[in-house]
Amino acid sequence: MNSLLQAKIDLLKDVPGVYLMKNEEGKIIYVGKAKSLIKRVKQYFFRPQEGKVFRMVLEIRDFDTIETSSEKEALLLELNLIRKYYPKYNILLKDGKSYPFIALRKNGDPLLKIAYKDKDKNYIYFGPFPSSQATYKTIDLLNKLYPLRKCQNIPTSPCLYYHLHQCMGPCVRKIEAKEYAPLVQEIKSFLKGDIGGLTSELKQKMNEASAALEFEKAQEYKEQLDAIHYIAEKQGIMSQNRISRDVIALAKRDFYISLVILTYRNGNLLGKNLFVLEEEEDLNEQEISLLFQYYETHDLPKEIIIGNEEIKARLEDIFKVKVIVPLRGVKKEQLFIALENAKNGIDEHFMTARLEDDMLSLLEELGSLLNMNAPLRIELFDNSHLQGESPIGAMVCFVNGIKVPSLYRKYNIKESSGKDDLASMREVIYRRYKRLKEEEGIFPDLIIVDGGENQMNAAYLSLQEVGVNIPLAGLAKDDHHHTAYLIKDGEVISLKEHHELFLFLMRMQDEVHRFAITFHRQKRAKNMGNSFFDSIEGIGVKRKEMLLKTYPSLESLKNATYEELIHLVPKSVALQILEKLQKES
Predict the structure, then answer these.
(1) Cα–Cα distance between 137 and 493 in angstroms, integer?
(2) What pLDDT is recorded for position 552?
(3) Average pLDDT over residues 316-338
(4) What three-state secondary structure class fits 486?
(5) Which of 177, 356, 380, 439 allows an S-S link to 512, with CB 3.0 to 4.6 Å?
(6) Stretch 78-106: mean pLDDT, rounded?
């Protein structure tokens, strides 16, 4: 231990806070929180370590601390700093499943929407429900059956829903609360489980459609019935009461842990969230941090069931909910089920996932090939266009080998650069790092561009123009796409003998390509929709806006019928739209 570390340790206090471990370059490699900073930080240097913690301690050359007023404040600061710096040795939970509610607005014109939180007091919430797909089908069905308001903002003229008699038209006249009251009551009854009348009506319509050989319509009614039954049916495992609770269990195996959270709402088991991660030195601290992360993005239940008596009081203090360590009865049985799920989850992970490769080892291998330190933060670029039209650029970011979609960026490229891939590359690289420099953001350890030396040279020129020095590599495939090679400083580095690294880089390249293609398709669809109406006589600015709002893409317009269109535009204009669609199909 160097003298700087010893001096800083001697100044630590017995107070809660956050500590930031740094390497010899001053880069933050780990962020942790502690109930007692002096006790927690000392453990790293005065206790034998192994595995990931041992590797981390070897790199530590300095640390900073931030004192906080409480453990909860330290947890929140820790999470925010991890999301800011994405340190090498920190692990963030991947998002687990959230369950949807159907929300009905209380005041003004009632309307329905899907929500993943139930905190807005302006809405009545039903659920949560176990299937997002079935929930969306149900709300779609309710919107068709009951003519409630559909638009978030009232338009200046009647929309398609009004003409289809699926909205009472608050844009046309003020609707009194007493007119809505019977509709609202029927919706509430249905969402509380009274489905008898509606299912009977749908069954009758399905049978009538089938008898009339209208099989597509009959299938639509059947799908609506299936969605209703899925929402209404009780789940297999029930609580003895209607309290909402989460049941949490943790299992260990070979330096890895699995954390399982079984979600019970209104007495029904909706499902589970499973997370498998590397075990850290202090398992209690790790479990508390992981649960704090989880409940940052998920609703807290009325009570938490857990098998760890040592952290019970701390969880109650942090989350302000009842935490129970059961000794017998139904809650003990639920805890046993959660523990079995945790054990099965970690066994399955070992058998099928191969621990998702050792990311740090692969990054170290990549760094060795490129004659640099392991690139923990990598940004990859790709461009896309169709014969020079709708050109776009895309950037994806991987931190510690894991994609971070919140850091992805899209770029609309000037049309004049569209057919010139090198000009597009120069523009995107220049815009990305000029802005990052101005905002004093975090630069990547490595930039990877899709292509060979020409693309690299284009990117290098832009980096020079911005005045930043970031390692740069090109990733390209051979003529037969059987293998790939890296290019750095004019040297071609084959990946033929580096099979795991090859697959690792291909996953990265596939991700930036997918992101670029998706964005390009969205832009093309928007541009085509905007330009489609320009040559049709009788469509001015207002009609064009209304049509684009109703049919946001050319694909949705192709499904429009004459009967629908004449509710929006004159018959002659509707015919022109259909004729043009036929010519261009």
Answers:
(1) 52
(2) 65
(3) 93
(4) strand
(5) 380
(6) 84
Residue 514's alpha-carbon distances to 168, 377, 384, 476, in angstroms, are 42, 20, 10, 16
Please, which residues bridge with residue 392 across strands? 384, 412
Q: Which CATH architecture has domain 361-525?
A: 2-Layer Sandwich (3.30)
Give the mean pLDDT of 386-415: 82
Q: Which of 83, 77, 32 is CA-nearest to residue 56?
A: 32
| Domain 245-355 fold | Nucleotidyltransferase; domain 5 (3.30.420)
Q: Which CATH number fits domain 3-85: 3.40.50.1100, 3.40.50.720, 3.30.428.10, 3.40.1440.10?
A: 3.40.1440.10
Q: What is the mean pLDDT of residues 422-437?
A: 92
Q: Which segment of 102-111, 266-275, 284-293 scores lowest on mean pLDDT?
A: 266-275
Cis peptide leading into residue 48 (ω within 30°): no
> Is residue 395 helix, strand or coil?
strand
Query: How much is the pLDDT for 268?
Result: 74
Tokens of 501: 């690294």
Domain ranges (residues) in the chain: 3-85, 101-232, 245-355, 361-525, 536-584
Beta strands 256-265 and 268-278 are antiparallel
Please report the beta strands in 141-285, taking only residues with DSSP state E, as ranges in sequence order.
Answer: 245-253, 256-265, 268-278
Lowest average pLDDT, out of 29-38, 402-411, 529-538, goes to 529-538
User: Whole-angstrom Cα distance, residue 210 to residue 558?
Assistant: 27
Q: What radius of gyration do the chain's Cα atoms show?
A: 29
Topology match between the domains 245-355 and 361-525: yes
The mean pLDDT of the chain is 83
Strands 446-450 and 377-386, sheet pairing: parallel
pLDDT confidence of residue 238: 38
pLDDT of residue 226: 78
| Dist CA 578 CA 574 (whole Å) | 6
Report the relative pairing of strands 303-306 and 245-253 from DSSP bridges: parallel
The answer to whether 75 touches 295, Cβ cutoff 8 Å, is: no
Query: Whole-model pTM above 0.85?
Result: no
Contact criterion met (CB below 8 Å) for 384 and 412: no
Q: C-alpha angle with apex 16: 10 to 19, nearest 5 degrees?
A: 60
Residues in contact with 585: Cβ distance below 8 Å, sequence separation at least 6, in sequence order:
558
Cβ atoms of residues 466 and 430 within 8 Å: yes
pLDDT at residue 240 in the model = 45
C-alpha pair distances (Å), 534 with each of 97, 552, 570, 574: 44, 15, 16, 14
Fold classified for 536-584? DNA polymerase; domain 1 (1.10.150)
pLDDT digits (tens, 9 = 90+) for 328-365: 888 999 999 999 999 988 887 776 554 455 788 889 99
3-state SS assignment for residue 117 = coil
Contact 411, 392 (CB under 8 A): yes
